[in-house]
Amino acid sequence: EKGMLAKSVESVKKSIAEYGEKIGTEEKAKIEAAVKEAEDLLKEKDAAKEVLEAKAEALARHAANCGTTPARLYVDGSATGENDGTSWTNAYTRLDSALTAAKSCPLVTEVWVAEGTYTPTATTNRFVSFELTNGLGVFGGFAGGETSRAQADPTAPPTILSGDLLGDDGPTAPAGRTDNSTRLVSVGPTVITPARLDGVTL
After folding, report:
1. pLDDT truncated to tens, each residue of the chain (202 aa)?
2. pTM greater than the 0.85 cutoff
3. What number of H helices and E strands is found in the chain?
């Protein structure tokens, strides 16, 4: 689909370059606007593909070691390690990556999340939410480096789960909220043992 769209865009741009003088100014402007819209769509698809590939790579590493995976995964948006969730140093930088990994490996029972703001997806898909799975506990309020849940402090500074996908919400005006997530947190359809969400700000 992307290949056909890219070819069509290039074909139209070539035609504009060759026959632009014969096209009316208004019609040419409409065509150029349509081309720009198509090019923006291609860029969005490239960005989404990169996110999916990175997530798939992380999940592949996780699945390969699922038999020895610790029961706890770590999330820290500022981590610079292996991004596999096995420690604070190698924490996932996105909460949704940790939740996806936990869903694929039932050995995971806890996810510790460091301070910061996390959205359900790195894309602009409003219908993606933070999905809690069977018996999973998600705990926020960590600075990063803690070894006990008792060391967490949800208020200083907080762990925030946000549906502001573009980061453009104002303090009161609803104008920037039409692109926000439609649902922030959801529970998977196969949850029998209650999931837990604690120490976070929604």
Report:
1. 446 666 666 766 666 566 556 566 666 666 667 777 776 776 777 766 776 676 677 666 656 656 666 789 999 999 999 998 999 999 999 999 999 888 888 788 999 999 999 999 998 899 999 999 888 999 999 999 999 999 999 888 899 999 998 888 876 656 667 788 899 998 877 677 788 999 999 8
2. no
3. 3, 8
Please say whether the beta carbons of 115 and 200 come within 8 A: no
Q: Do residues 142 and 154 lie in contact, with contact meaning Cβ atoms separated by under 8 Å? A: no
How far CA 103 is from CA of 98, 132, 152, in Å, comes to 9, 8, 24
Q: Give first-to-last CA distance, the chain, whole Å.
A: 37
Compute CA distances 34 → 5, 13, 15, 188, whole Å.
12, 11, 14, 40
35 vs 1: CA distance, rounded Å: 16
Of 159, 139, 150, 161, which is closest to residue 73 (Cα–Cα)? 139
